[in-house]
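Customer ticket, subject: "Can you confirm the structure for UDP-N-acetylmuramoylalanine--D-glutamate ligase?"

Message body: Hello, I'm evaluating your service for our small team and ran a test protein. I'd like someone to confirm that this is what the system normally returns, since I don't have a reference to compare against.
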Amino acid sequence: MSKKIAILGGGESGIGTAILAKKNGYEIFLSDKGKIKNKYKEVLEHIEIDWEEEKHSEARIFDADVVMKSPGIPDSAPLIKQLREREIPLISEIEFASWFTETPVIGITGSNGKTTVTSLVQHVLKEANIDSGMGGNIGNSFAKMVAEEDHDWFVLEISSFQLDGIEKFRPHIAILTNITPDHLDRYEYKLENYIASKFRIAENQTEDDYFIYDADDSNITEWLKKNPVRSQKLPFSLERKIENGAYIENENMVVNINNTQFTMPTSELALQGKHNAKNAMAAATVSQLLRIRKQTIRESMSNFQGVEHRLEKVLKINNVQYINDSKATNVNATFYALESMDSETVWIVGGVDKGNVYDDLLPLVNEKVKAIVCLGVDNEKIKASFGNIVENMVETTSMVDAVEAAYKLAEKGDNVLLSPACASFDLFENYEDRGRQFKEAVRNL
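Agent reply: Thanks for trying us out. I re-ran your input and got the following:
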């Protein structure tokens, strides 16, 4: 008798789960409370999956042996509560995918930097001719890759929402880039709930696995004191020398693992800035674990192109640099962006606030920001936070208007920085859509 799986959500992870479940003989029902995109409907029709949209047929969902919940659905949703009451197993797509592969995983999570680290690790592996597939929270879903691709390694970016639904998922190498308040609206506004969620990446690891983390992050180090992990710890730090792990000394990145040392001048790293030195240390630690040639690591770290929508230089117009940092969906990411600005900046900010506290940004805004362009449906909190320290503040509700306003405010030698510190769903489909609209508006100036 085939097992029944109900899939909630018809996006990337839902479709990936359907493809993998079909391949493994499951009886499948996919249900989405919203509308399913046409490109996904075509896949469902092609592989002959039973699906519905704009409703949940509860009787059919409750009939399943296991339910895969897409990461976008909060635990507080009534249907999820009912599933828990009925004790129907509820898992995430990465958990489901892990049941059908023995391939080792490099899993990367954290509030910021995870896309950059994931892309950088994949770049180094590719340059070293190691066969690896990259996906998870970016690109293809893990389930789709397990169903359709064969690799020696999987490199996965993993969000806290994906980790919330794991039971046995175990990456051989886990990276935790940092933890700063984010998505607190999904964690009862309790930071400790969010931290616990991030640490699930290491909960199934054994003594044979590795845990790479930021030793300068007090949220991480305090948690580790009370909640030790079983895996081998490899910290990285900008502040102190690390015996087994990575650190910066005399403007060199040093990675020490079991008495094998790799060094590289930080000036040669393709990505500059303190936060990127940390991203490079995390990726270099993985490279050392996999015994990649030092020359290959050096070349990869110096020729990496960076990630779209993350401090991406778009154009210079009238000697004003336009920078797309649409991926900055929280305060901490914007902190890094502002910190790296080396001239007067017109800052485009705003969107859906996830419980943001802007206090940390005040000194940087005071020092670097000459004008603020608000881009959101509701900008009251931004105006209240920065109104006293920035004289020029403009409100806009479209990207074209925001870019035109910034163009008028910027002078020779300035930067125009889109770094919203907020989610994008009030005016855009997602942060990629927001970033692409920014680039288009800049090119049309």
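A couple of notes from the result: The domain at 4-91 is CATH 3.40.50.720 (Rossmann fold). The two ends are 62 Å apart (CA to CA). Feel free to reply with more questions.
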